[in-house]
């Protein structure tokens, strides 16, 4: 039961965003159908894409929690990173593509808007719902980032579900502001093409978000190290044993947001026997797992300092 509650807590941001986007999407399409607004239509598509993205991330979360097996001995944690990359592609291909195409079509063949009131009402409701989802995502991300700056926290985050929703909701709020401006300007200046321009601007916002998410997801999918503080803690714990004369390198890679594989090369005292070395390694592994619970797999290799490969400081992580 406690595990189930923990998982629901981890996914609350995704569930909140999904509920908000489903309701908002329906309202936007109704408003677009009644008024003929291009920017509201693209905002409806945007909400549908966001809803699909949340479903994919929830699916990725579920798949990533599968236990290791003989085919995937380190588990399926990085499957979440794959679906995060798919989300970035969908935002670019569908969200941004449809928005820019619809905007261009509306500029080429402008259709006067029927009534801005419906659009304003829907935009106001959407801002409230998206704002609630954004606040939830912001609160969760702020809790997870600790003392790190916002941009640095995004770059170092290994859980795409948190920053993907945050970026999507931020883009959605920006898109709503642009849509409102497009509807208002179309009526104020009696030029329906301005609503199409707003649709294109929304598309460009989505292009920027998709590019940023794709960059972050690609790094996670290829494999990123643990944070430097964790690496230094591992190195310190190993070096603290008097039988270890040198720690050659500590190499880590995230196999899931909360799971890390570490490979350690250390020079042991030549006076150690084989049995003593095995006992020492077992003791170090137990200490490391207790001190750094996210270490799912630990590999410690006795190796002469002179024989250890020479690698750059960045590669050691």
UniProtKB/TrEMBL annotation:
Family from the record: Belongs to the cation diffusion facilitator (CDF) transporter (TC 2.A.4) family.
GO biological process, alphabetically ordered: zinc ion transport
Superkingdom of this protein's organism: Bacteria
Membrane topology: Multi-pass membrane protein
Keyword Transmembrane helix: yes
PANTHER family: HUEL-CATION TRANSPORTER (PTHR13414), PROTON-COUPLED ZINC ANTIPORTER SLC30A9, MITOCHONDRIAL (PTHR13414:SF9)
TM ranges: 12-34, 80-101, 121-142, 163-184, 196-214
Cross-referenced Gene3D superfamilies: Cation efflux protein transmembrane domain, Cation efflux protein, cytoplasmic domain
Major subcellular site: membrane
Subcellular location: Membrane
Record protein name field: Cation diffusion facilitator family transporter
Keywords for this protein: Membrane, Transmembrane, Transmembrane helix, Transport
Domain Cation efflux protein cytoplasmic positions: 227-303
Domain Cation efflux protein transmembrane: 17-221
Any Gene Ontology CC annotation: membrane
NCBIfam families to which the protein is assigned, alphabetical: CDF (TIGR01297)
Pfam family, one: ZT_dimer
MF (Gene Ontology): monoatomic cation transmembrane transporter activity
């Amino acid at each position: 039961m406690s595990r189930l509650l923990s998982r629901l807590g981890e996914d609350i941001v995704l569930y909140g965003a999904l509920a908000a986007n489903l309701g908002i999407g329906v309202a936007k399409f109704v408003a677009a159908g009644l008024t003929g607004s291009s920017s509201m239509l693209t905002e409806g598509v945007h909400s549908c894409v966001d809803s699909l993205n949340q479903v994919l991330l929830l699916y990725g979360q579920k798949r990533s929690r599968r236990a290791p097996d003989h085919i995937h001995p380190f588990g399926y944690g990085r499957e979440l990173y794959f679906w995060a990359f798919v989300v970035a592609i969908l935002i670019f291909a569908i969200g941004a593509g449809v928005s820019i195409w619809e905007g261009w079509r509306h500029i080429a063949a402008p259709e006067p808007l029927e009534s801005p009131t419906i659009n304003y009402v829907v935009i106001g409701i959407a801002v409230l719902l998206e704002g609630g989802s954004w606040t939830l995502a912001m609160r969760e991300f702020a809790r997870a980032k600790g003392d790190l700056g916002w941009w640095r926290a995004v770059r170092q985050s290994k859980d795409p579900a948190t920053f993907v929703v945050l970026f999507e909701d931020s883009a959605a709020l920006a898109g709503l502001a642009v849509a409102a401006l497009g509807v208002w300007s179309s009526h104020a200046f009696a030029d329906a093409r301005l609503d199409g321009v707003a649709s294109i601007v929304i598309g460009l916002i989505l292009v920027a978000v998709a590019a940023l998410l794709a960059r972050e997801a690609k790094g996670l999918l290829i494999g990123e190290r643990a944070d430097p503080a964790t690496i230094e803690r591992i190195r310190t714990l190993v070096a603290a044993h008097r039988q270890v004369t040198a720690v050659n390198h500590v190499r880590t890679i995230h196999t899931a947001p909360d799971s890390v594989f570490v490979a350690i090369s250390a020079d042991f005292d030549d006076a150690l026997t084989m049995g003593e070395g095995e006992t020492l390694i077992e003791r170090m592994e137990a200490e490391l797992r207790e001190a750094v619970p996210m270490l799912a797999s630990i590999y410690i290799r006795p190796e002469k300092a002179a024989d250890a490969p020479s690698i750059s400081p960045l590669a050691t992580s």
